[in-house]
Structures are given as C-alpha cells and as structure tokens.
Design goal:
This protein is an alpha+beta fold. It is built from five helices and eleven strands; from the N terminus they run H-E-E-E-H-E-E-E-H-E-E-E-H-E-H-E. A hairpin with a 2-residue loop joins strand 1 and strand 2.
C-alpha cells in the first residue's frame, strides 16, 4: 500500500510538497499547464484558480502576480500564507483544512462509477452549480480522472483529481445532487478515485473549508487525517 513520503531528516530544510501544493503542482507534474511570470505560476483561468508563488515572495513576485491580473483585478490566493503587500485589498479570506491519507483509507473501485470525459462537462458544470463543492471550470477535467454516478441517465454525483504535487494527488469536486444525498455516493466516489491514485503509487489528499464540519467528519470516517489548516483567500490588486 502506498505511504506518504518519508519526512526529510532533521536539519534539512526541504519543503513538503503539500506546504505549497499549487506551486509544487505547477512546477512538477502539472508544468504543462503553467502560465509563468518570473517565479509566479498559475493555471489557465478555465482550468483552475490555483496558482503558485514562492513560500516567501518578494516585491518582484507580487509585481508579477499583479501583472497577471491587471490594475484593480482580483487575484485568487488559495493556499498562499504570505501577507499581501500594502495597498492590496483582501476580498475573501476563510480557513480551510488539508486532509491526507496516511494509510488508513479503504480505497476501492466502484462498479457503478463511470469515467467522465469532455462530453460530460456541461452536466458536470450543472451539478457543480447546484452543489457548490468549490471551483470547477470548463477545462478542470484535464487535470486528472473524474468519476461519476448516474441515475436514469442523469449525473447525480462525482469526484475527481485536481492538484498534483510530486507523489500526491488531490481529490476534488466531490458533490452529490441534493435529491440523492444520504446514500453514500460521495464516500464511494472518494474511495474509487483514491483507489486509482494509489494504483499509480501516489497518495490521496484533499481540501475543504474548516467550517464544512460535515464533510470533515465524513472524510475522517473514511480514513483521512488532518494535516494542517490552510488559508483560502483572494485579493484585489491596487489601481
């Protein structure tokens, strides 16, 4: 069974891939998606709002980030812990949690789960609009495997892969149509997606809002454990 990478020995300043997952993804397995200005990298707008800046950004990094958005533009800062510079306005700021599989997840395939493709995107976007699991855009499906469950031909639940730091894959867009909740569909899909991740020799992880206590209880019951709290923020560029 795949296990999380062994921590670096004491005394070595080696960052963990999940400490800055957007940057680790865009400079690693997802480098093909990266749009870059200096040391700042981001996904295309129609793929994901996640971006990556150095853990300790300098003035040049913030200037490059501002150039991406333009004067007065809004910049999503998921996972960015650094304080924004003077003149920037925080427009969104909530606390999230990062949960990881440390070997206790009972990952397994699901006979009803079907792999979703580009032709399913309109239905996926409609399901996301009804359930609001977090950002999912027209090309998000390109980031990894997405599985769904249908009822009488209609997509009623889905989950898939998003960020991809080296050795890890994030499970994201976990959602169930309100009319079909309480049947364990989300749990089944999370475990099925996790199974595919483990089959590649990687480790599943995920994010959710800290206030989403119901989802956190569900994920912990499946075998995920809390690794850390993580900020989900956005800021407006001066001008």
């Amino acid at each position: 069974m795949p296990q999380p990478p062994t921590p670096a020995p004491t005394g070595f300043n080696v960052p963990h891939p999940l400490d800055n997952p957007g940057h680790a993804s865009l400079t690693g397995p997802h480098a093909r998606f990266a749009e870059r200005r200096g040391r700042v990298v981001r996904y295309p707008h129609d793929v994901s709002p996640w971006l990556g800046i150095p853990a300790e950004p300098d003035a040049a990094d913030w200037a490059d980030l501002a150039a991406f958005a333009g004067p007065g533009g809004q910049v999503p800062l998921p996972g960015v812990t650094a304080d924004v510079p003077d003149g920037w306005e925080l427009t969104f700021d909530i606390t999230g949690v990062q949960l990881v599989d440390d070997g206790g997840l009972a990952a397994a395939p699901d006979a009803e789960a079907v792999r979703l493709g580009p032709g399913d995107v309109p239905e996926m976007l409609a399901l996301v609009a009804r359930t609001e699991p977090g950002p999912f855009r027209e090309r998000t499906i390109e980031l990894g495997t997405y599985l769904g469950i249908r009822h009488e031909g209609t997509l009623i639940a889905m989950a898939g892969e998003r960020l991809h730091p080296p050795g890890w894959t994030e499970i994201s867009a976990v959602c169930t149509d309100p009319a079909h909740r309480g049947q364990g569909l989300a749990s089944r899909l999370v475990l099925a997606v996790a199974y595919g991740i483990r089959e590649r020799g990687e480790t599943p992880f995920l994010h959710t809002a800290a206030r989403n206590t119901g989802a956190i209880r569900l994920y912990e019951s499946l075998g995920f454990r809390l690794r850390r709290h993580i900020p989900f923020r956005a800021a407006r560029v001066p001008g």
